[in-house]
Design goal:
The protein is of the alpha+beta class and 284 residues long. Helix content is 32%, strand content 28%.
Length: 284
């Protein structure tokens, strides 16, 4: 059942933040490793530098950035030098997603080096159990399942069609079929009378389940596909030993509101910082 008291929710502290940030980082690491298997010529790679996960997928890819800056140890100038070189050597701008629970050294050095904040993300969480039921009525005609080995392209096409309002992501999403064939990520589809109408992904790391990539083909929205995908992924994660689920969403978005309706709370708001290629990092 959905928790009805605050005792079920862990405190938002550095321990929880580290678990959440590491889970998202490891989800991206697994994707990068799968990208290398699917596209050996891509140049995709990752590295852990000073406790920070640095990932390069491609120039302009939403995965080309870092996670965990200042979360696992203080940030030093040599750390940032090495992180910046990692991206600049590959022709990419430098992006860091930074939790407000990060060590103060992260903010101090980012400001000194003239990074600019460009994006906010609500990191949300909730406890999960195997008998979880969301407080909403499900459409009995919607079924959810893990894809089969030969359905990676079906999942990718469904996901891409569900994000058609963001055409800049279409090529990236269509590539996911080949990448997912090599990855450890869990890909789910929701079907209406046997037709795939929605897609979603799940990443498990230690005791945290990360839900991501959920989309519904526009003409099939408002049929309850997202509710079914959410509930079944939460229950699956709990069945694999996870005790906490997380979602990342734009502040105030429909995704955030939907997550809050189903028991998710905002743990903190993360800031993405950018340093453009060629920008000076020297102090005034």
């Amino acid at each position: 059942m959905t928790p009805t008291n605050t005792d079920s929710y862990p405190f938002v502290d550095i321990d929880l933040a580290r678990r959440l940030e590491k889970t998202e980082a490891m989800g991206n690491v697994k994707f990068i490793e799968a990208r290398v298997k699917a596209f050996p010529e891509s140049g995709a790679t990752w590295r852990r530098i000073g406790g920070t996960f640095a990932m390069f997928d491609a120039v302009g890819s939403p995965l080309t950035q870092t996670f965990g800056l200042g979360m696992f140890q203080p940030v030093t100038e040599p750390d940032l030098d090495e992180l910046e070189s990692f991206f600049k050597e590959r022709g990419a701008d430098v992006f860091h997603e930074v939790s407000p629970l990060a060590d103060q050294s992260a903010l101090e050095l980012l400001n000194e080096r003239r990074y600019r904040p460009i994006e906010l993300t609500s990191v949300m969480f909730r406890p999960i159990t195997t008998d979880l039921r969301l407080h909403a009525k499900r459409n009995p005609e919607i079924s959810v399942r893990l894809i089969n080995k030969d359905e990676e392209d079906l999942w990718a096409q469904t996901a891409a069609d569900g994000w058609d309002e963001y055409p800049e992501l279409r090529e990236f999403l269509l590539d996911l079929g080949k990448v997912n064939a090599q990855s450890e990520s869990l890909s789910f589809i929701a079907e209406l009378k046997g037709k795939a109408i929605a897609a979603g992904a799940l990443t498990l790391n230690d005791d945290v389940a990360l839900l991501a990539g959920a989309s519904t083909i526009p003409q099939f929205r408002r049929n309850g596909a997202q509710l079914a995908l959410l509930e079944d992924r939460l229950r699956y994660g709990a069945g694999q030993g996870c005790t906490t689920a997380m979602i990342a969403a734009r502040p105030g978005s429909a995704s955030q509101r939907n997550a809050e309706r189903h028991g998710f709370r905002i743990a903190y708001t993360r800031i993405k910082w950018e340093l453009r290629r060629g920008a000076s990092t020297s102090m005034i």
